[in-house]
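QA checklist item 7 of 12: single-chain prediction sanity check.
[x] sequence parsed
[x] length recorded as 238
[x] structure emitted
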Amino acid sequence: MKDELDRLLAADYRAGPAPVVTADDILDTIRRHTRPTHMALVPPNQVDAVRALVAAERLRVTVVASPYVPTDRVCLFKLPDDERPATVNEHPLYPWLDEQLAYDELAAQAATAGPWRHNPNKQWHDGHDFDTLKNGQEFVAYGGPSPFVGCVAATGPADDPQSMADAAHIALHDPERVLRDVAAHRAILDRHRRTVHFDQVLMCRKCGNSIAPCGDIRLIAAVYADRPGYDPDWAPRP
């Protein structure tokens, strides 16, 4: 489903007009998904069309901007309860974790493409500083091995240990790395989200003898413990 929505909604908006998207296109792809929520990166020239479909009640989904990416290109599509795919024994942690992974995925997609690098032997000079070559800054670069690179973020004075540590940390978490993290966590979630009732207790089918949500899912969810909606009861257990 993600590939289909990417094709319909997330065409490269910098390369020209995005494809025409109808209510049936969106609903059909969402209904065929097993999760009750889905997020998609909407090109700017499609946002108004999607919102118009919702306003005209031709598309019964909730459209919510991502709280982590300040752009109208990022929306959360959520079906009304009576149209969501049937979920059997679905623990509330699973759809909540779906949303957190999607938020991370979309933030990485909206960011400057990687790879990002930090070279402690180079400094960033901006504006007047470029002429004087004074007041250089540690920075995170994007682009290839060419000496002419762009700056994703300047972290502080050049040769300052904290500035260098901050730049190195940012470079280690470039969009490609985040997307790999999301894919891995999503695969683990898919393996462990199927549950079964046993003696009136919800059990993880993958783990066999673990009460759902199992320890693996609790560990992933704990990464997002600072986000709205996290329930302290979901914390990993000893």
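[x] summary fact logged: The radius of gyration is 22 Å.
[ ] second reviewer sign-off
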